[in-house]
Amino acid sequence: MNQKPKVSIIILNYNSEDYTIQALESMKDTDYDNYEIILIDNGSNENSRAKLKKSLGKFKKVIYKEISPNRGVGGGFKAGAQEASNPDYILFINNDIKITHNNWINSLIEVAKNNVGIVGCKLVYSDGTLQHAGGKINFLTPFFAMHIGIRDDPEKEVYNKVIDVDYVTGAAMLIKTEIIKQLNGFEDLFLPMYYEDTDFCIRAKKVGYPIRYTPNVKIIHFESSTTKKATSTYFTYVTTKNKILFLLLNMPLKYIPIRTIYE
């Protein structure tokens, strides 16, 4: 009997332990055996760490590691990947999510089998509207990274098909380990967060790996648990900085004159 592929799930915590505990609770009934959870505390304060560590006894398969200072999303996920014990796939998920059914890992792997590099799923907001069904890139528009179906009804037929997309987000993305090794993980320059997941998908596509969306896994995403405490000025600064960095790293040169005129 062939053993199922091994999956290492990586979750980051940064002063948002209640969300992290909720995410772990939602995974307790997962019906896939060959997985581990690597929980990285990414420079949280002592109170957050203490509360998190106190809760870990009730969860199986969790490997806990603390890093400090905070390394951002890219650095945190790299730290998690280094702790993984020879997996076939690495599954990055945000801590502010809730798994809605127990066969989610099986469903993601079924899509990944056919030489697919990265698989994302149907993400819905807590109010039940769609966050995205994958995303498309159009460098000629100001909002070049566009979530498919944002705030729409997630049960529409158009969102219930497995399709190839340009990117999925780090809220939930299953990645073949070979790609992470080939591309050296997420780009560290996108500090502290935003666009590192989109950039990784673009780089994976450039070396020939398809990015695929599946509606067969639905995850609730409460979104931005760690940024709700940030000021609007800081949020604007970070998103603008990383948007510019993403364009510098990924926009084809032929689009630069057109985009300059457009804006």
Automatic annotation (TrEMBL):
CDD domains: GT_2_like_c
One family name in Pfam for this protein: Glycos_transf_2
Top-level taxon in the UniProt lineage: Archaea
UniProt key word DNA-binding: no
GO molecular function, one term: glycosyltransferase activity
Tagged with keyword tRNA processing: no
Keyword field: Glycosyltransferase, Transferase
Domain Glycosyltransferase 2-like: 8-148
InterPro entries in the record: Glyco_trans_2-like, Nucleotide-diphossugar_trans
PANTHER family linked to this entry: GALACTOFURANOSYLTRANSFERASE GLFT2 (PTHR43179:SF12), RHAMNOSYLTRANSFERASE WBBL (PTHR43179)
Sequence similarity: Belongs to the glycosyltransferase 2 family.
Name listed for the protein in its UniProt record: Glycosyltransferase 2-like domain-containing protein
Origin species: Huberarchaeum crystalense
